[in-house]
UniProtKB/TrEMBL annotation, chain A:
Pfam name, any one: FAD_binding_5
Organism domain of life: Bacteria
Protein name as annotated: Carbon-monoxide dehydrogenase medium subunit
Organism per entry: Plantactinospora mayteni
Keywords: Oxidoreductase
FAD-binding PCMH-type domain location: 1-222
Automatic annotation (TrEMBL), chain B:
Stated name of the protein: (2Fe-2S)-binding protein
Stored InterPro entries: 2Fe-2S-bd, 2Fe-2S-bd_dom_sf, 2Fe-2S_ferredoxin-like_sf, 2Fe-2S_ferredoxin-type, 2Fe2S_fd_BS, Aldehyde_Oxdr_Iron-Sulfur, Beta-grasp_dom_sf
Superkingdom per UniProt: Bacteria
Species of origin: Plantactinospora mayteni
Keywords on record: Iron, Metal-binding, Oxidoreductase
Domain 2Fe-2S ferredoxin-type: 25-101
Amino acid sequence: MRPVSYSRVADVATAIGTVAADPDSTFLAGGTTEVDLQRIHVARSKRLVDINDLPLRQVEELPGGGVRIGAVARMSDVAQALPVRRRFPMVSEALLLGASPQLRNMASIGGNLMQRTRCGYFRDVAAPCNKREPGTGCAAMTGVNRGHAVLGTSEYCIATHPSDLAVALVALDAVVLTQGPAGHRQIPADDFYPMPGETPDREHPVAHGELVVAVEIPPLPMASTSNYLKVRDRESYEFALASAAVAVSLDAGVVTDVRLALGGVATKPWRARRAESVLVGAPATVESFRAAADAELADAVSHGMNAYKIELGRRTIVRALRTVTGDARMVSDDGNPP
Amino acid sequence: MKSYAETAGAVEVADTAVVRGPNAVVVRLSVNGTIRNILVEPRVSLLDALRDRLDLTGTKKGCNQGACGACTVWVDRRRVLACLTLAITCETREVTTIEGLSDGVHLHPMQQAFISQDAFQCGYCTPGQIMSAVAFLAEGHAADDAQIREWMSGNICRCAAYPNIRAAIRQVRDEAGTSGPDAAG
């Protein structure tokens, strides 16, 4: 790691003022991304401003059934927090299926939302990467892209967003609360992550010196039986190849409301609005689930090694929907896998 | 980029925080109950500080990028990775390493169980496995082997001694009766 200086701050105003005034500085929370990327010279801050003492660790119930999560709260603590487990189990599951126990003890919620892609070319400073160095090209297009996105891609970038938590938050219409020199902002989670387009280096709308202070999840009664399904190369301590956060409300076997978001297959935490619109009003059957999955993946684009993700994404949607609607059979009536 | 409603609360931008480094500064650490002052740059990891400055070489450097768990120590009694922790961030916190686990005379029950169950071959991952395992039992979800596998997945063993590592954890769990969530300490 290149030399860095260090400041430790105890209040939000000092944290913001300090980073905003020093263009070479950045916030340091759990460090699981920042220290790693500084060490491999992908991140190049010259000053780290330690925000771990800020009073932003609370998980609070909001009136009406929502939850507010402080930005410096640890993944492990949020996953175990009763309001989260009871009201939004998909959030708890997404957190517990991410990283390892040690990393979850370290990593903050704000840092989780701000984490960078795990694309190997982004992490390799010798490789071209439009996200790391705009205009240099994308080595993943014709390179090892087995783990890359099939939805939301552009000719500039096909990297996936690695957060499981963000997938659940996008499904739940959560709001990211920030504070910066210009004041407070409330940014819907879906808008927090832009599509890469021609500017994959612009990963979020947060300005230099602006700090994520909390996440608010609005009330959603049907989320109390929601779940998060994560499919990966090994059963633990691995990023998603495909994942789905899902909550469904049924009335007499018909879908009256649904929230569905995907991870691992897209360049951003992917709200599956096409699938949702197919599902609302449809019977909760495997056929409906397949139709929804087909609609969502209709425009998926493969770059070679990741072609399997199109079918994997479909199957992940179907399986997640079957699980959350109580039909957990892994073989459908026609004898084929869902 | 979309714009969002701004509310009151603009912050007057001022850089008022104390700056330390980038040259070496005195960092005050509490390790295994002892206060130690060391002269290190802010970029120095807790792992390197322990091994190279404090001669506490029980904590191992495996991947140095948060993937293997060999450097697992406790900060304020929670298991974390020393390679992704900067030493300077640990001031005011209590660090515990494998050297601080026993009372100096008797091995910790988990250390003894690793010997009894032959839970290692080369031994390089073992300090991290043990620090992780003790914390894991205190966390209180070691009811069965599936849970042990899941909650110990952050510690990789190149020799694949996993069956015996699980046996060691089961032994300590069953001796201490710490299988359920009520046993979290």
